[in-house]
Amino acid sequence: MLATRTALLHVFLFVPIAYLLAFVGFPIVYNVIMSVQEVNLGNIADLVRPFVGLDNYREVMADASFRKVFINSLVFVGVNVVAQVSIGLGLAMFFAQRFPGASFLRGLLLASWMLPALVVGALWKWMFATEYGVANFVLRALGLIGSPVHWLSDPAVALTSVTIANIWFGMPFSMILIAAALTSVPLELYEAAALDGAGATARFRYITLPAIRPALLAIACLVTIYTMRAFDLIFAMTQGGPLDASNVLPLLSYQFSFQQFQFGVGSAIGTFAFVIVFGVALVYVRTLKKEGGE
To answer: What is the DSSP letter of 208?
Structure first.
């Protein structure tokens, strides 16, 4: 009986490990290998391809579009993390109050997060349309603009447009995680603070925020990872344009690989993005260990 249980344990351990190696580990290793090779349409099916060392990385670093896209990615991720966590915190605390329709409204917000990113991108592309978009219609009705804003075709505002769309798309994820963290804060602390005369701001600053700070850091790491992988929403809205104004690293890697057929250069860009995500993932894991008291 013990031998059977041991065998089953090994089987249950082998299946997820095999899955991770096949669908996560192998693509990562293969991408790194391609990044140090010269890979094009002529030799992509070959097992042995010319080794070029770090030439692809040097080409990427010397490319002006990469530097621009790298800065875009940092801005895009930074604004998304701050906005999604901040708005998610505010909404989580709002919906923690009991009032009629709270569950329904919370469900509406979560419904947006469950939509496919391509659908969300198409929706916001329609909303940001220059002539018939909802955004320009509302701003005109409020008297805030005199002429239509070219949300998706103006390099000055294209990145702002996709950032707004991604914040709307990802914010419910932060909200639901923060709401779960808020349930772990003992109500007795709030009651004791209220008896001592502490106001809402003081209770938030000295009770709520310290109690959920580890959770907020973990959520910020998750949002960073997910935002660094943003591709389909931006592809549906602007395809990285105009003039790379809304382009990010995953999309640039796709463009080099499947539009210019420079697979080695595209893999090098993908490796840059992976290194950033991997570093954030390590921070996330350390946060979870610290929160768990290990």
So the answer is: I
Tokens of 40: 């094009």
* Residue 79 near residue 97 (C-beta atoms within 8 A): no
Closest CA to 77 of 229, 214, 216: 229
The CATH T-level fold of domain 65-291 is MetI-like fold (1.10.3720)
Q: Cβ(47)–Cβ(34) under 8 Å?
A: no
Cα–Cα distances (Å) from 126 to 108, 135, 158, 211, 231, in that order, read 20, 9, 14, 41, 18
> For residue range 43-93, what is the model confidence (pLDDT) as tens digits?
888 878 899 989 999 999 998 889 999 999 999 999 999 999 999 999 999
DSSP three-state, residue 51: strand
Structure tokens at 29: 């290793």
* Token pair 């990385």: residue: 57
Q: Which two tokens stand for residue 260?
A: 């210019």
Nearest to 264 by CA among 1, 122, 52: 52
Residue (of 216, 192, 215) closest to 203 by Cα position: 192
Using alpha carbons only, give the angle 128, 255, 229 rounded to the nearest 5 degrees.
Answer: 65
For residue 87, give Cα distances in angstroms to 84, 140, 143, 252, 254.
Answer: 5, 26, 26, 29, 31
List, for residues 220-278, the tens digit of each pLDDT value: 989 999 999 899 999 999 999 999 999 999 999 999 999 999 999 999 999 989 898 88
Q: Is the pTM of this model over 0.85?
A: yes
Q: Give residue limits of the domains in the chain.
A: 65-291
Element (H, E) at 261: none
CB proximity list for 92: less than 8 A, separation 6 or greater: 175, 176, 178, 179, 182
Q: How far apart are CA 235 and CA 238, in angstroms?
A: 6
